[in-house]
Design brief:
Radius of gyration: 20 Å
CATH topology of the largest domain: Rna Polymerase Sigma Factor, Chain: A
Structural class: mainly alpha
Distance between the termini: 35 Å
CATH superfamily of the largest domain: RNA polymerase sigma factor, region 2, helix turn helix motif
Number of strands: 0
Number of domains: 2
Oligomer: single chain
Strand content: under 5%
CATH architecture of the largest domain: Orthogonal Bundle
Shape: elongated
Largest sheet: none
C-alpha cells in the first residue's frame, strides 16, 4: 500500500471516528471546552503518528490510546484547577469508556443486518429519522402520512430492531 492510499484511509478513519473520539475524551474530562482542546491536540498527535497507522488494525483503540495520553497530559498541566478529575480516576474512566465504545461497535455490527430485515418502507422511515435526523413532522409530510402514523411505525420498527439486535448479540456472546 502506498503512502497516499495509507493517508487517505487514515483521514477517512479519523473523520468517521471524530464523534467517538470526542465522546471518549468528554467522558474523561466532562467539559466541552477542554474536550475540544484535547481532541484537537489528539488529532494533531495522530497526524504526526500517521506512520504508525495500520489500516488493517482497529483504528479506535489506537486513537483512544493517544487520546488517553493527551487527557493525562492535560490533567497534569492543569493540576492547579481543582474542578478537574485526578489522573487515577481519569484512568479508571478511560477503561470504562473504551469498553463502552467496543460495545457500541458490537451493537452497530448487529444492527446492520437487522435493518435489512425491516420492510423497505419502515427502513426508509428509520433512515430518515435517525440517519438524516429529519423531524417526525417532516417525514410525515414527505411520505404523506399523519404524524401519529409515523410515530407508531417508528415505535414498531425500533422494537423489531431491538429484539433482533438482542438476539444477534446473545448468539455472539
Amino acid at each position: 500500500m502506498d503512502q497516499n492510499e495509507n493517508s487517505e484511509q487514515f483521514v477517512q478513519q479519523l473523520t468517521e471516528n471524530q464523534t467517538r473520539l470526542y465522546g471518549y475524551v468528554y467522558s474523561l474530562l466532562g467539559d466541552h471546552n477542554r474536550t475540544s482542546d484535547v481532541v484537537q491536540e489528539t488529532n494533531l498527535l495522530l497526524w504526526q503518528k500517521i506512520g504508525e497507522f495500520h489500516p488493517k488494525k482497529p483504528f479506535l483503540p489506537w486513537a483512544f490510546a493517544f487520546a488517553r495520553f493527551q487527557v493525562m497530559a492535560h490533567l497534569r498541566d492543569r493540576k492547579r484547577d481543582r474542578l478537574l478529575l485526578d489522573a487515577e480516576l481519569a484512568e479508571t474512566l478511560s477503561g470504562e469508556a473504551k469498553r463502552q465504545a467496543e460495545k457500541i461497535d458490537s451493537v452497530r455490527e448487529a444492527l446492520r443486518p437487522c435493518l435489512q430485515r425491516l420492510t423497505p418502507t419502515n427502513r426508509e422511515l428509520v433512515e430518515c429519522r435517525y440517519f438524516k435526523a429529519m423531524s417526525i413532522a417532516d417525514i410525515a409530510a414527505a411520505v404523506d402520512r399523519t404524524v401519529g402514523a409515523i410515530k407508531v411505525a417508528l415505535l414498531k420498527s425500533r422494537r423489531r430492531l431491538a429484539e433482533c439486535v438482542q438476539k444477534r448479540m446473545a448468539a455472539e456472546g
